[in-house]
Amino acid sequence: MATSAGSTHASTSTDTSMNGNDCSSSSTSSSSIVEPATRSLFSVDDSSSPTSALPSTDSDAESDVGSDYSTASSEYIAPLSGHAPDPSIDGSSVDGGGHSSGANGGGIRPESEAELGPDAKKDALRIKSEANALFSASKYRPSLDLYTASLNKNPFDPIVWSNRAAVRLKLEEYGLAIADSTRAIELDARAVKAYFRRAIANLAIMKPKAALVDLKKVISLDPHNVSAKAQLDATQKLLRRLQFEAAISAKDEVLTSTKILEQLAHGALPIEASYAGPRLPNEEEGKPLRPTNEFVDELIEWFRKGETIPKRLAWQIVLGAYEKLKEEKSLVKVTIPQGETMNVIGDTHGQFYDFYHLLTLTGRPSETHSLLFNGDFVDRGSWSTEIVLVLFAYKWLYPTKVFLNRGNHETADMNKVYGFEGETKKKYSEMTYKLFEEVFTALPLATLVSASSPTNDTSSDTSKNPILCQNKKRYFVVHGGLFSRDDVTLANIAAIDRISLKQPGHEGLMCEMLWTDPQDSAGRGPSKRGVGIGFGPDVTRRWCELNQVTAVMRSHEVRQGGYSVEHDGLCITVFSAPNYVDQVGNLAAFATIDETGSIKYTTFKEQPHPDIKPMAYAGQMAMM
């Protein structure tokens, strides 16, 4: 599963599903999670007892954090007023992925503990031990399957439910982590780790009030737990900070960009003569500023050396991009000219050295080469400012060739807890962070990428022809996915007043575009993340047919091979951060679309980087 650091090879494949083989035809269409010293609260349990023991005083909080902080309940509420399905059979009932463990097929479980025989309990414990070993080896998806297989044998073991919640946290399935933890607590009211994991999951979707309920319960069960007390203290500080910032924001009517423009106009923060890094042309001549290719090349090399740039220069880059972003609609429409290609790039998450390698594979943007970055440039990785400053410099230089969609991590809630705010304040200043926060609101929400030439598909099976618009392919590129209703049109998306809305909130079109995920089952379901929804293949097909879209291209989720083609070819996921947060072991990928709408995928491995861990600037935040 893991890939070796430093590999430079890249592989390219052609996806036949985008050549008419899998599409139906259509004539229309600062921190809040504490890093503990040991791993007891978050390490999985291997006890054969169905009752979890209290953790030792030293405890672990492997974690992540993220959006909404209103409810004080620890219950997982399924969106759309629906009821969450049994979270142990989400997506499909597994048997260990073909593993020799031999779990129940079909997800059929005994309804009472009295139905369990000794063999079933023994098998369940054996499977759990295998799952624990996979978890310890960072093989999270296979371990998830085996925990589910164990629960299919014995669904009355709270330890397995709690252990599976730990895997859910690793996979960023926070809504399902809450559901699994809740089931463990129902089976064992003293399941300390389950309370703690549910607290961490609620923090991950920015529900600190709900997290407080469980953290206080942990301390009541284990009064001497140092890490739980530290986590409670950090969460209380987060709540106070959120309340303070909300009060200040209501009073502050002057935009940060306005304040900075005034400072720059009065010559504030001049660049020191001793500074040896990149400089914008014309800075000393008083002429209009505009970057050049040479400037961006120097900027990239400067960052590769581990250097930062003066605040004045950073502000100029961000403001230059801001002017271009404000000119774009919430849905940007791009046609790939004859003889040109566009690269679509998924999450990069502050992994600058992998980002640099990515640019060597795609090639730099130019007047004949377009790049579309599909959100989540920042957070988690510890070089987020480097990536976003390079992207903003390119947007300023090539406004009609470089396109930047907003991701769920280009939002204030996420940046507070996943590292970008802390990194920006450390490397630059609080005002610089506030400027980024403002400019992120101007990022478009989606891009419609259209071919300029008719498709060259020659499939004789008309039932599998792609969905076309005027005999040409086009792709809806969005960070998260589709919607809680079927009637959303491209015109509706273009009309979203994203800059006035500022943040995506927790419902509505903007939230769904940044947060939703595809699911295997038909229809819509509760989000495994706890924010947004899951949308099935039928939902994707109806939406593509309504809007004459060949496929939805999104990011937002790790794919072990770098990309995936799902929903009969109508939903494509591209993820561009290899060995995500230095532990997942995944390949990364980007897509190349040509003038006919044909797609090729290129995969690549992670690169060596300086010895700075992910989330290094997230204060007391901890890696899960």
From TrEMBL:
Matching Pfam families: Metallophos, PPP5
EC number(s) given by UniProt: 3.1.3.16
Enzyme class (EC, first level): hydrolase
Region of interest (Disordered), ranges: 1-116
Annotated Gene Ontology cellular component terms: nucleus
Database matches in PROSITE patterns: SER_THR_PHOSPHATASE (PS00125)
CDD domains xrefs: MPP_PP5_C
Biased composition (Gly residues): 94-108
Record field: compositional bias (Polar residues): 45-58
Any coiled-coil regions, as ranges: none
Subcellular location: Nucleus
InterPro entries: Calcineurin-like_PHP, Metallo-depent_PP-like, PP5_C, PPP_dom, PPP_phosphatase, Ser/Thr-sp_prot-phosphatase, TPR-like_helical_dom_sf, TPR_rpt
Domain named Serine/threonine specific protein phosphatases: residues: 405-410
Family that this chain belongs to: Belongs to the PPP phosphatase family. PP-5 (PP-T) subfamily.
Biological role: Protein phosphatase that specifically binds to and dephosphorylates the molecular chaperone Hsp90. Dephosphorylation positively regulates the Hsp90 chaperone machinery.
PANTHER family: SERINE/THREONINE-PROTEIN PHOSPHATASE 5-RELATED (PTHR45668), SERINE_THREONINE-PROTEIN PHOSPHATASE 5 (PTHR45668:SF5)
Protein name: Serine/threonine-protein phosphatase
